[in-house]
Amino acid sequence: MPNNFQMPDLMPALPEIFLLTMACVILLADLFFRDENRVFTYLLSLATLAITAALTVTMHSDVPVYTFDGSFVSDTMGDVLKVFVYLVTAVVFIYSRDYLLNRNIFKGEYFVLGLFAVLGMMVLISAHSLLTIYLGLELLSLALYAMVAFHRDNSDATEAAMKYFVLGALASGMLLYGMSLLYGITGTLDIGGVQGAVADLEDSKKLVLGLGLVMVIVGMAFKLGAVPFHMWIPDVYHGAPTAVTLFIGTAPKMAAFAMVMRLLVEGLGDMHAQWQDILIIMAVLSMAVGNIIAIAQGNIKRMLAYSTISHVGFLLLGILAGTQAGYSGAMFYAIVYALMGMGGFGMIILLSRAGFEADKLDDFKGLNERSPWFAFIMMILMFSMAGVPPALGFYAKFAVLQAVVDSGLTWLAVVAVIFSIIGAFYYLRIVKLMYFDKAEDSLPLETSTDMKVVLSANGLGILLLGLAPGSLLALCTAAIG
Amino acid sequence: MGFEAITFYIFSAILVGSAILVVSLRNPVFCALALVLAFFTSAGIWILLEAEFLALTLILVYVGAVMVLFLFVVMMLDINLAVLREGFARYLPFGLAVAIILVAQLALIVGPEQFGLEAMPAPPSHPEGYSNTKEIGAVLYTVYLYPFEIAAVILVVAIVAAIALTLRRRKKKQTMGPEDQVKVRRNDRVRLVKMAAANKDE
User: Fold this and answer.
1) What's the CA gap between A321 and A337, in Å, rounded?
2) What are A72's strand-pairing partners?
3) A73 forms bridges with which residues in the sheet?
4) Distance CA A343, CA A323 (A)
5) What residues in A contact B122, CB-CB < 8 Å?
6) Pairwise pLDDT comparison (A315 vs B122), residue with the higher score
7) Strand pairing report for A65-67 and A72-74
8) Could you report the per-residue pLDDT of A384-421, keeping only the tens digit for each?
9) Hey, what's the torsion of the CAs at A170, A288, A359, A168, to 10 degrees?
10) DSSP 8-class letter at B66
11) What is the Cα Rg of chain A in Å?
């Protein structure tokens, strides 16, 4: 093998290479900026994301391209998810700027670590071997642990980072043990190879494969935040600075979806009957725990954390259906959730100011008097999360539920609908607080214009895409097919 | 039982024993030393598997670098053992039960039936003069180039994160800026205070 070594084709990985180079350049350039010029780091990061997006679109090819001896794949699903990861990250950076400035943590490292996390997501999305899946996940997680602890003088943030790190390391260990069993039984790291080996496996070895499968699912469920591996989510979402919660809660979910698709659907697709049962249990528990416990939360960051858990349950529904429509529905759901979550946490940042964190439900009281426009935007976001038409969230739930019904699991769809009706209560409670309660806090909203514009576009986008969801849905269908 | 098997069982026994010591010893320094022993014996097992390069790397990197650093930290920090040990006895029965069930379950699945010599025949021994190091070197920068580079990026992120989280620039340095010294005026340094004369004896 080494004697006839061929240079791998680097072109499919050009976006990754460019992003890595720019992250290193920004890391160094940031040293030379004075504090008052720190905004250049921010602008450079946004420009990097834009150019990387342009490169991803330019390099796109309709047939999957494999390189680096099959450990990297560039296909439509990967490219679509990557472009949304860039978009979400760019918006997260825009929302975060004022928040970080107000708390004196507007440092270059936030953006550099963010870019490295994006690189980790790209590696994860494009991974086509067990090794690259694991490394991409670690790259992403390591950057996120550091970002959670970023506000280092805040004891809540440090505690959240510690919990996240310890539990995350445990989950990585589980995932790695599962991968080592898969490697032991199939003899290959390549996802395509695993798929082939699983198909030809003798029955006597299925038991080990099952253990490997369970371990791998545990690791992935932790990263997604599915019940019963969800305990870290409320604490981390609550403790982390809102700018970081915004990031953790959105883009990585799309990368985690890609990981499930590559590992479970592509690699272990022949085991669908086995993993479907596991996912059904996790999906039902996630929707139950997420929606019911969210009702009891007084802190909106915790409430949105439990809402994430319930959304993950919905996402799993699409995957466990095991059909093309199910996978594209789940992908649609992941993207839509990232867009909604971005808006929801963005609203918390909008209401916060120096020395004040608007993370209580009561802080949303009477928002209509203070700013009718942003109360309207928040209403769209809440309707969308609850799944009320015509907001985009309705179509995401609809696509997933249709796939579940088509695969013959009608009872599961009924359960999902019941839990989402329970969930509608706490979303609509926010709408009630905004429109029917007296404001306790009458200070005007002070935020820069760009954030207001982007947040408005975020909310209106969800409404408009909800009126015409066809194009995004078609994109997801094309990506999976 | 051949020499290889005897060596394997001796090393395995020491490995499991030292691993138990790592989690059960009271003194953290001894724990760290037990971990060194565990690394050392697992390196021995790797040599039995003809992975001599990895075995030596394990000793060099983990025993030589990581554990020495670990010992430094353990010795320099004043760790309150009483707090660390709090609840140890209370959680022990539960933890022990979980561990025993887990080991039993794993032994059922990852046992000789699945991974025994009949199920997974041993690979043929390599001829004399075969270099493990050369083989690894040949694939590390070719076939595994991409994972290798990502691992390097992970280390960069670790460095950035560690510095971002711990570096504190001290504003009050012990040195004087020359520009401040030049600009200094008498009034900044000396303050004349008018006081009424007082009697020495009082």
Assistant:
1) 19
2) A67, A127
3) A66
4) 30
5) none
6) A315
7) antiparallel
8) 999 988 889 999 999 999 999 999 999 999 999 999 99
9) 10
10) I
11) 22
Residues of A in contact with B155 (CB under 8 A): none
Q: What confidence score (pLDDT) does residue A366 get?
A: 86
User: Cα(B103)–Cα(B199) distance, rounded to whole angstroms?
Assistant: 88
With beta carbons under 8 A apart, name residues in chain A contacting B161.
Answer: 109, 113, 142-143, 145-146
Instruction: Give residue-wise pLDDT tens across range B73-106.
Output: 888 887 766 676 677 778 888 988 998 998 898 8
Alpha helices, DSSP H, located in A60-129? 76-102, 108-125
For all residues of chain B together, what is the average pLDDT?
85
**Omega before B121 within 30 of 0, i.e. cis:** no
Task: Inspect the interface and report whether the beta carbons of A20 and B160 lie closer than 8 Å.
Answer: no
**For residue B107, which residues of chain A lie inside 8 Å, CB to CB?**
none
| In contact, A404 and A330? CB cutoff 8 Å | no
Per-residue H/E/C for A186-243: HCCCEHHHHHHHHHCCCHHHHHHHHHHHHHHHHHHHHHHCCCCCCCHHHHHHHHCCHH
Overall average pLDDT of the A15-40 stretch = 92
- Assign A283 a pLDDT band (cuts: 50, 70, 90): very high
- From residue A391, how far is each of A312, A371, A441, B84 by CA, in Å? 19, 21, 29, 52
Q: Which residue has the higher pLDDT, B172 or A205?
A: A205
pLDDT, position B84: 67
Residue in B110, B146, B165 closest to A146 by CB: B165
Residue-wise pLDDT tens digits, B37-81: 999 999 999 998 888 899 999 999 999 999 999 888 888 887 766
Chain A residues with at least one Cβ partner in B under 8 Å: 1-2, 5, 8, 13, 20, 24, 27, 68-69, 71-72, 107, 109, 112-113, 116, 119, 123, 129, 131-132, 135-136, 138-139, 142-143, 145-146, 149-150, 152, 181, 184-185, 204-205, 207-208, 210-211
C-alpha span between B74 and B36 (Å, rounded): 14
As a whole number of angstroms, the distance between CA A274 and CA A214 comes to 9
Residue matched to tokens 């959670």:
A148
**Mind listing the pLDDT tens digit for each residue in A42-71?**
999 999 999 999 999 998 888 899 988 889
Q: For chain B, what is the largest distance between any 2 Cα atoms, rounded to a whole number of angstroms?
A: 106
B24-28 mean pLDDT = 82
pLDDT at A278 over 50: yes
Query: To which residue do tokens 């760290």 refer?
Result: B32
Neighbours of A361 (CB within 10 A): 17
| pLDDT surpassing 70 at residue B144 | yes
Cβ pair B113:A135 closer than 8 A: no
Q: Are residues A132 and B165, on separate chains, in Cβ contact within 8 Å?
A: no
Stretch among A81-90, A427-436, A441-450, A459-468 having the lowest mean pLDDT: A441-450
Closest CB from B106, B115, B161 relative to A146: B161
- pLDDT at A456 > cutoff 70: yes
CB-CB neighbors (< 8 A) of B143 in chain A: 1, 69
Distance of alpha carbon A304 from alpha carbon A290, whole angstroms:
9
Q: How many Å from the N-terminal Cα to the C-terminal Cα in chain B?
A: 99
Alpha carbon of residue A102 to chain centroid: 26
Residues 114-173 on B with a CB inside 8 Å of A are 114-115, 119, 138-139, 142-147, 150-151, 153-154, 156-158, 160-161, 163-165
Distance separating alpha carbons of residues B95 and B97, to the nearest angstrom: 5
Task: Tell me the C-alpha distance between A65 and A230, whole Å.
Answer: 35
Taking CA–CA distances from B135, the nearest residue in chain A reads A2
